[in-house]
Specification:
Length: about 400
């Protein structure tokens, strides 16, 4: 009785195992066939295809009945396979593929379609084992990456083209700077000569002037000075934007720079009725930089304030220190800059609509030069302005670091 019960129990368990295995096998086949975008191909130990899912059918245009039983290597482009095998100094056999590709990271191969076309496929080959761990075959998983690789190649070509364009623009920009620098140097000498001879004529060194000649010489002198200023600004910008800066890096007292401008600023104001005040600390304000360039930048800020402030207006220049920075503030209650135009403030040759409408003379290089000088001194510049509400320019430049002295106690 016990033997019969035992045999019955064994038959039941065996039947359950077979049913479960069949169910798992059927589920697996269902999943494999359901993969429409991924090629899943089963391969036996001899390299023959045993499973060809719908994803492989879609990719290669081949019916499963045609593919099953054929050699797996027939899917790979022959010339690619031969070239790969030559790299291993061996014949292009399935054993060689198994030796080098099974259970390795994915790599790209060209697969041959039924109509002779080729697709680039990212492929892995994985070993398949039974419950006992015995090797029973291989599973190939492939995804068509042809379009993705083509897009990558197009993107790389576009980036390379953009890089070439950028390099060309840099070359043109460098050539432009060289041209501007050369022309500016060539212009400065004759313009300076014109201004110099004009001053001699105005001083009467070549005889007395008639009343009709005086305003003509004044106009020549005034426009000559404008040309010299333009040339100097172009040369300064060219030097600051070049790879080899020619300006000094020395300890500079910014307070002395401001005082130097204050001493000669009356000549820039001329006959204008403006209230101009300077506030400078009594102690040195040391920064590392070029006093000449800093003088030029500050003079441009103050000249702008004079040009854009009407008679009866006020201009102030204040130098202070905050933490580890020198802070220079130039403020006026003049015409101001429309807010919608302030994005272009530091562009070369840019002039506001107000200056153009009122025919205020200028080259549009002043703020561009100031920005270049301040940036070269590792500083920052901020501008607050409103149309007809005046302008405040705030420049910050790092103070020179004073080396700390070692203090020893006895």
């Amino acid at each position: 009785m016990r033997d019969q019960a035992g045999r019955a129990s064994h038959l039941v368990l065996t039947g359950l195992d077979i049913t479960a295995e069949r169910h798992a096998s059927g589920l697996m086949r269902h999943l494999l066939q359901a993969a429409l975008t991924t090629a899943l191909i089963g391969v036996d130990l001899h390299g023959c295809i045993t499973l060809f899912n719908s994803g492989a059918q879609t990719l290669l245009g081949q019916e499963p009945e045609e593919a099953v039983g054929t050699a797996f290597l027939d899917l790979l482009a022959r010339e690619d396979l031969a070239r790969w095998a030559d790299g291993h100094a061996a014949a292009p056999t399935f054993d060689l593929v198994v030796e080098h590709l099974v259970d390795q990271p994915a790599r790209e191969w060209r697969w041959a379609h039924a109509d002779g076309r080729h697709s680039l496929v990212s492929m892995t080959l994985t070993s398949v084992r039974d419950h006992a761990g015995a090797l029973i075959g291989y599973l190939c998983v492939g995804s068509d990456v042809t379009e993705m690789v083509q897009m990558q190649e197009m993107l790389m070509k576009a980036l390379d083209k953009e890089r070439q364009v950028v390099d060309r623009l840099k070359e043109l920009d460098s050539a432009k700077d060289d041209f501007v620098s050369t022309v500016s140097h060539e212009l400065r000498t004759p313009v300076s000569s014109i201004v110099g001879y004009t001053e001699l004529l105005q001083d009467g060194d070549f005889g007395d002037l008639t009343q009709q000649q005086v305003p003509v010489l004044d106009a020549i002198s005034r426009n000559g000075e404008r040309l010299i200023t333009l040339v100097d600004n172009l040369l300064a910008l060219s030097g600051l934007s070049s790879d080899a800066l020619t300006w000094d890096h020395a300890s500079t007292d910014l307070a002395e720079v401001v005082l130097g401008i204050q001493r000669r600023f009356a000549g820039y104001v001329g006959r204008r009725r403006l209230e101009v005040t300077f506030t400078v600390p009594e102690v040195p304000v040391l920064v590392e930089g070029d006093s000449g360039q800093l003088d030029r930048a500050l003079l441009n800020l103050l000249s702008n304030a004079v040009k854009f402030t009407e008679d009866g207006g006020r201009i102030s220049c204040c130098l202070t220190t905050e933490d580890d920075q020198a802070v220079l503030v130039v403020r006026d209650d003049g015409l101001g800059i429309p807010r919608e135009e302030q994005a272009n403030l530091f562009g070369r040759f840019w002039r506001s609509s107000t200056s153009q409408a009122r025919h205020i003379q200028g080259t549009g290089l002043g703020l561009s030069l100031v920005h270049a000088v301040v940036t070269a001194h590792r500083g920052s510049i901020e501008i607050e302005s409103e149309h007809l509400q005046g302008t405040t320019v705030r420049v910050r430049i790092p103070l020179q670091r004073v080396p700390s002295k070692d203090v020893s106690t006895v």
